[in-house]
């Protein structure tokens, strides 16, 4: 596994990957991931349908904005033996690498792997855990605001590029969103697939101390922006929240979207 040694700006000086994981990723006594109005089961079910449905082909997947978490790659490892995790924050990259190496103080993703394998009807979750660790070949620095988001790492184009909850957090407005989306789209090979998850109708989120602005998006805009970047067969699923009380953001819903890049 190759890792990029670049570091990020002071924005993440006080960020704690372990605190973030402990606060956001837990599993109930019933084995179901615990989250507000079951958004985590919703996400994992959509990923299962995408990657376990037999519709995708190829070997190489790029996940942009992985953070310190690998839950969104569990189903992908069933299909793709070569996964690159691209992440801005050094501490997040280190946390992923600890898990890949099986270090004692790494976050325990076993309950999530068991849950996803249960969704897929696969009883051998330990084999999936091994497969995922083997599949993560690279953990690299990424800054989607740069012309070359992956810097000197030249791994593209990819059969699949995925990005979860990233695009609305790193720009100032919809023009920035369009530009960043175009950069991600350029990393997908013709005929390849884009998997995107975005906040909808949100203006900000908070870590409990500081409030951070978000690009306010709606579903029609996201769909059209993806088409404008040269994608077709756009399909999506929207999770509407009945209440956001107790959440760290003020949106109304999440969108899970997949699209196929047009052939050149």
Q: Helix amount, in percent? A: 25-40%
* CATH top level assignment: Alpha Beta
Q: What is the strand content?
A: 25-35%
Largest sheet: 8 strands, mixed
Strand order of the largest sheet: 1-6-5-4-7-8-12-11
Q: The CATH topology, please?
A: Rossmann fold
- Output the structural class: alpha/beta
Q: What is the N-to-C succession of helices and strands? A: EHEEHEEHHHEEHEEEHEE
The CATH architecture assignment turns out to be 3-Layer(aba) Sandwich
Mean pLDDT: 91
Structure summary, number of beta strands: 12
Helical segment count: 7
Number of domains: 1
CATH H level, superfamily name: Vaccinia Virus protein VP39
What is the C-alpha radius of gyration, as a whole number of Å?
A: 17 Å
Q: How far is it from the N-terminal to the C-terminal residue, by CA?
A: 32 Å
- Using the alpha-carbon principal axes, give the shape: globular
List low-pLDDT spans.
none
Question: What would you note in describing this structure?
Answer:
The structure is a single chain. The protein has helices at 17-24, 39-51, 90-101, 110-120, 125-135, 174-186, 219-228, and strands at residues 2-3, 26-27, 33-34, 60-64, 82-87, 136-141, 158-164, 188-200, 204-206, 211-213, 231-240, 253-261. It has 264 residues and is an alpha/beta fold. The chain has a single domain, classed as Rossmann fold. The strands form 3 sheets. An 8-stranded mixed sheet has the order 1-6-5-4-7-8-12-11, sandwiched between helices. Strand 9 and strand 10 form a beta hairpin. The protein is globular, with a radius of gyration of 17 Å. The model has no long low-confidence stretch (mean pLDDT 91).
């Amino acid at each position: 596994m190759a890792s990029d040694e670049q570091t990020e700006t002071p924005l993440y000086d006080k960020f704690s990957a372990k605190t973030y994981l402990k606060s956001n990723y837990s599993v109930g006594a019933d084995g179901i991931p615990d989250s507000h109005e079951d958004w985590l089961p919703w996400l994992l079910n959509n990923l299962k349908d995408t990657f376990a449905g037999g519709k995708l082909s190829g070997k190489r997947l790029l996940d942009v904005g992985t953070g310190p978490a690998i839950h969104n790659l569990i189903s992908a490892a069933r299909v793709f033996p070569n996964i690159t995790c691209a992440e801005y924050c050094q501490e997040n990259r280190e946390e992923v690498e600890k898990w890949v190496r099986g270090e004692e103080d790494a976050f325990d993703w076993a309950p999530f792997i068991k849950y996803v394998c249960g969704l897929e009807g696969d009883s051998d979750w330990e084999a999936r855990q091994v497969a995922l660790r083997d599949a993560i070949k690279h953990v690299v620095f990424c800054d989607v605001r740069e012309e070359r988001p992956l810097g000197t790492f030249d791994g593209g184009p990819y059969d699949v590029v995925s990005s979860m909850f990233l695009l609305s957090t790193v720009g100032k407005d919809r023009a920035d969103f369009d530009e960043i989306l175009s950069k991600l789209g350029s990393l997908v090979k013709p005929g390849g697939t884009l998997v995107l998850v975005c906040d909808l109708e949100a203006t900000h989120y908070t870590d409990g101390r500081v409030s951070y602005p978000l690009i306010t998006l709606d579903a029609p805009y996201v769909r059209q922006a993806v088409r404008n970047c040269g994608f077709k067969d756009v399909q999506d699923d929207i999770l509407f929240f009945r209440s956001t009380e107790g959440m760290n953001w003020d949106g109304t819903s999440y969108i899970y979207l997949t699209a196929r890049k047009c052939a050149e």
